[in-house]
Write a structure and sequence with these properties.
This protein has 238 residues and is of the alpha+beta class. It is built from six helices and eleven strands. The strands form three sheets. Strands 1-8-3-6 form a four-stranded antiparallel sheet. A four-stranded antiparallel sheet has the order 2-7-4-5, with no helix packed on it. β10 and β11 form a beta hairpin. α2 packs across α3 and α5 crosses α6. The protein is globular, with a radius of gyration of 20 Å.
Length: 238
């Protein structure tokens, strides 16, 4: 059993966005859990009894692939984890911490009762699920794009603002989220920068809308000069 703290007092700042969604009553019955890197929060097949909200850190939802490899379904850095557990008999995937993480655990019995008796909370919850559905549609759409350059452009347009994105994760993690190998992401970023369709300033990536995008260009090792080894996991891109 993962140690659970007695209250959410230590997460007062991080819990404010959650408070606006679930309200003081549900926040009052929440407890804090801590996860170390590599620690499992729940496994596929476990019976849910709490709803988890990530305050800080990183947790991935994953499932075993056909060859036994771990397939990442979703990467969570803030907000609820596996909201579908509110109305399912068992988890359909596993949740594993990638970094030191703190979560709020809210008993599902209290969540379900609030959905039954509190119309205002029910409306806020439905609005939250609608936003998540739109986000997941974007993820599915992005994974369906054939070229690495298309996936990169799509991500920047959807997750950034005005064609610019401040990347808040390592290139290796980003490649995993895009469904690419780190090497493919690395080469494509170099090609897009050389073609002028992408500007890279530290961890900020900006699309140049004045340059018509083309298919993924092939680059020689010299074309990637100035980039760090992607195996380093460093966040900086240039």
């Amino acid at each position: 059993m993962i140690p659970i703290m007695s209250s959410v007092a230590s997460l007062s700042a991080a819990s404010e966005p959650l408070r606006s969604l679930i309200g003081d009553a549900l926040l009052g019955v929440a407890r804090v859990q801590r996860l170390d890197p590599g620690q499992t929060l729940f496994r596929a097949g476990d019976v849910p009894d709490r709803l988890f909200a990530l305050a800080d850190g990183e947790v991935v939802l994953c499932r075993a692939g056909r060859n036994g490899e771990s397939v990442v379904l979703q990467r969570c850095r803030r907000g609820f984890i596996a909201e579908a557990s509110v109305d399912t008999a068992s988890y359909h995937c596993s949740a594993v911490a990638r970094r030191q993480s703190r979560l709020l655990a809210i008993p599902l019995i209290d969540i379900r009762e609030a959905l039954d008796v509190d119309p205002a909370f029910r409306r806020r919850w439905l609005a939250h699920l609608s936003r998540e559905l739109r986000r997941l549609r974007e993820v599915i759409e992005r994974r369906g794009l054939r070229s690495a350059a298309e996936r990169i452009r799509h991500y920047i347009e959807c997750e950034g603002r005005a064609g610019s994105l401040a990347l808040d994760q390592s290139r290796r993690d980003w490649a995993e989220e895009l469904g690419l190998t780190p090497e493919s992401l690395y080469r494509t970023l170099a090609a897009m920068r050389r073609s002028g369709t992408l500007r890279i300033d530290g961890t900020t990536l900006s699309l140049d809308i004045t340059v018509a995008p083309s298919g993924p260009a092939r680059v020689s090792p010299a074309g990637a000069q100035g980039f760090q080894d992607p195996s380093s996991g460093a966040t900086g891109l240039g």
